[in-house]
């Protein structure tokens, strides 16, 4: 809070006031954790990526939204204002990722943060005996191969500068088995492995590599699947169904929770954190309950 410095006669000292005012302003500026940083976020036209782009911009960053959805991506960039730029990018094409990274350099002369966030769900049959390998390859191309390509091209421009923060979106389904179809789950286990392997090399260059594992969030990604499973429910009920699977009383997992995790990992607050998987799940994957029957239910 700003306290005005009063002289004995009741007037305030202008230099002292100005000094205090400037100090207050600079405090606000240090709260902008990504001031003058440049971030490239894949899959930022909606959901987690969009929430993160918003958070990064509010913290002083310039953000390049790289997404396959051209119209939505452009609308998102417009909505986020002059510090957001859209570039069309299909992450399954290495040339598109390479172009997006080069765009960051030509537009802003640097790339500080690369967030490999784009991903797709997998609507495959649940049993391994029915595994659809063509679908497996498609999911891997986006959820895994594109993450490798994103890190490859980010490293290309970050290594010469000796600094950078690379993020990826994994999932709780890559922390424990049994929470999603095998193909999707395996793809997210791979992301967590990629982060550890890449961190081992890139630490020598001052580049940190981390991932975030979100719990279920009713973004378009999840709502599409939920609509197919529960076609008789309206979207409000579907959101409730998603939220009700969480274990933390009093809170639901929202895109902004992941954006907060991304802000931490991208910023200097996490300057000594690398190779880490930040699980944002309200404790869900930390425990299992032993559901013993009540004594009067056992003979
Ligand atoms: N929503 C959840 O419950 C949840 C939980 C854990 C992890 N995740 C992960 O979070 C990430 C973001 O998903 P979301 O929930 O925000 O969903 P979303 O559908 O809102 O966003 C995904 C974005 O990725 C883009 N995209 C898809 N394919 C692409 C491609 N080939 N090239 C470029 N962009 C592409 C889409 O256009 C979309 O804008 C994904 O990696 C997903 O696996 C989501």
Automatic annotation (TrEMBL):
Q: Which Pfam families match?
A: adh_short_C2 (PF13561)
Q: Which GO terms describe its biological process?
A: lipid metabolic process
**Signal peptide segment:** none
Gene Ontology MF terms in the entry: oxidoreductase activity
Ordered alphabetically, the record's keywords are:
Lipid metabolism, NAD, Oxidoreductase
The Swiss-Prot or TrEMBL record describes its family as follows: Belongs to the short-chain dehydrogenases/reductases (SDR) family.
Name of the protein:
Zerumbone synthase
In its UniProt entry, the species of origin is given as Cicer arietinum
